[in-house]
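Backbone geometry:

***
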Amino acid sequence: MTEDDICHLGIAEARRAFADGTLAPEELVEATLARIARIDPLLDAYIAVDAPGARRAAREAAARVGETPLAGIPFAVKDNYATRDLPTTANARRLQGMIAGFDAAAVARLRAAGGVLTGKLATWEYGTGLGVQFHDAARPHARNPWAPDHFPGGSSTGSAAAVAAGLATYALGSDTGGSIRVPAAACGLHGLKPTYGLLSRYGVLPNSWSLDVIGPLARSARDCAIVLQALAGVDPRDPATVDVSVPDYEAALSEGVAGLRIGLVREIPGATLAPAVAAGLDALAASLAEEGATIVEAALPEPLARYRETTTLISGSERACAHEADFRADPAAIGREVREALTTGVTIRAVDYLAALRRRAELARGIDALFERCDALILPTTFATAPSYRDPDAVRAFMAGSTTAVFSLSGHPAHALPTGFDAAGLPTSAQVVGPYFGEAVVLRIAHAVDLALADARRRPRIDLGTDPRTYPPITLEPEPVAPGDEVAAEGFARLHGLPLDAIAAADYARGLTRSAAAGAAVPRPSSLFDGAIATFRVSPRGQ
């Protein structure tokens, strides 16, 4: 096997090679480290590589081959997971060089199963879905292996780029509103956001306690099933985890999809699907029908904007709570887009946050009711393929154009999977969504699609002759701020003890302007926002 072949083996394929003696864990890990050294300078997927630790773990795992499915398999984790022996920075300036001294629950479980940690992966600042506007975090954001001048999604950028490029067999990411599934879609991968409460988040930097979920990114549904098996289970250190029976996810894959009733959400009001995305969704539905599933038309019970705005209000408040200490201690050390979000987040009233939680419960019940007549749903992950960094408007539209927040809000398991490619060779994606703790059904469907749409899993071709300096700079111009708005924003923020410099005031004004534009659809927008926004509307010069 070539290095490329070795580094694109799935977990089950690698363990078969271990068993028949054609490959050893040390060889797989050595090939992975060599590939990281050659290719990652083009992609910036890794923040830190632990070659000595990986080699040591591979030697230890060689004696355990056959004991567990993950023994000897190299993996990497998003840099918001605590690791006992590597820095955990979440790509935040205030956390540079921090070593947690312990492993996150998920990392500990994978290491205990014989997994070989190769390093920590790029993320947007603090592991949030923020940072695409300025790209001013401590370290570069990862690039898309399918086209390095294109956007890889976020915030689990490094997790997706590394797995797609063969720099890790699988990776762990985190997902608050789509941060596993959007990068998986952009990079042609499987990305699973499990049911809220199935996996422990202990040791993962929080952003939104009631929305944050961790999960795997991999090149197949089978690999996701194997990793999920190792991670699932209650953990008293994460009070959100639920003590539920955990099935054998890999064994369930063989059950197929015959007899399942699957709801196809083809029409999403307000969304325009790229032709290739729509074609991929149709191909997915047709393949499932050929395997014996019944495909029925389905629809989201509420407009997409309702889910997004409720999610934004909840996550904005919880994010501000999670990072308020850093924000108040040294706001200049925080990137502009994150700082903007924290500034607006700390002014959300408790009554409005609680109203959003109530609305969330209503929206979640509406989604759950769909599973009374369907075993699962299928719908687009993103409305377009990965855009070029040369088109800032397309990058913003890509981040806004997805269905992922719906199921972050409801808490249902949602799995992004590749469905094909557009004319430029960029991956298309769809989501499979199941009932609460219905990961086995979701993975069965995803596995059936893997078998039927094999071409959707082809590898990216990475041109090692490319000079990274020729890539377009990853920076976007901010949306304009009306003259004087930053003056009003600065005065308003100071009423709440938020000192802002001129740049921060402009960013805060930008956030308030966006809130005003969407205010009619937000359930009970904060009266604090109303006061500032009224100032902008009545006195555009802030006087």
